[in-house]
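User: Could you write out the 3D structure of this protein bound to pyridoxal-5'-phosphate? I've included everything you need below.
Assistant: Certainly. Input first, then the structure.
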Amino acid sequence: MHWKVPLFEPCFGPEELEAVQQPLRDQWITMGDVTLRLEKAFAKKCGVKHAIAVNNCTAALHLAVLAAGIKAGDEVICPTLTFVATANAIRYVDATPVFCEPIGPENLNIGASQAEGLITAKTRGIMVVHYAGFPVDMVAIQELATKHNLVIIEDCAHALFSTLHGRSCGSWGTVAGFSFFGNKNITCGEGGMVTTNDDQIAKCVRNMRSHGMTTLTLDRYNGRAFSYDVIAHGYNYRMDDMRSALALAQLNRLDGFLHERSRIRERYCKNLNGSQILIPNFNWESISQRGDTVGYHIMPIMLPTGCKRETIANRLKEDGIQSSVHYPPIHTFSVFSQHVEVPLHLQRAEAIAERELTLPMFPTMTNDQVDLVCDSLLGSLDEAYH
Ligand SMILES: Cc1ncc(COP(=O)(O)O)c(C=O)c1O
């Protein structure tokens, strides 16, 4: 299918083409010095002590949950309006995701008051997702976590690098995970990062990402070690240097990408202003401070109640425009609902999920393309009520 306006498009130039070739020339393609350089640059940008590269965000969240000490039988509160990986990471350690309602159609994030009502004697943690790049109110989440002695895990797949009170997403929680998947704000195809300020958590993540081994192939190649011990049943969640090189080149261009994403969001807001479309603003004015920035990721809108999303998506498609839905609520998926005796109904999440539509957003999207999307969308609204 050839779209006039795809939902997303990666942005690669000479920097990336050059970067991916270097590990080939250097004859070192597995995890090595380039990955170390990526980790160092990422930690600096995020304002954290440790950044540990892994092969995707799902692996990052799995290691985050594990290293934070979440165990079988524990409960972890997380949003239902997110990608399934958020909850799967909790299930990987046999803990139970407890699904939380979003704040509302204006703010698709979870809030401390929604989460507090779900706390039981088994609750050990809270996993937040900074939906579309808009930070969750982390001040309130931290207060809640302190009061109930919970660990905080941040799913920052969308939030590279939004700030709140001058601090980057990924530096607020006990531990956090980022994604470099093809549709993310920087990409290397598949890739991810764990961030933390906690030395013990960092040590555990580093060890568990490579089979629980005490040394790496690079350590042995460099003569820093001859053999190894295995101290835990770890995983192979390593990043390789070709993808690290690509991610590093993209990281260096991130500020430019975010600038373009802001332009696109502003134009959408201007074009759709005064229409029946609601653009969630995530209570940004009330939780942020001067100088805070959102690293916009996706462009979610709320359609008017009662109009048919399918009709609108079809009209956009006829006009060559790709759209999507973020997200079908996780609690409605078979694998998450089949073991519960009474089916869970989270009415707010379900009502929001029915109205949500995600419009295209990517750094090279032109103003004309934004206008085309808005014209097609607004032109389809009347038809969508029938
Ligand atoms: C909110 C959220 N969490 C986690 C992930 C998983 O990321 P990855 O594909 O890098 O494993 C995604 C990816 O789309 C996501 O959107």
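The CA atoms of residues 231 and 345 lie 43 Å apart.
User: Perfect, thank you.
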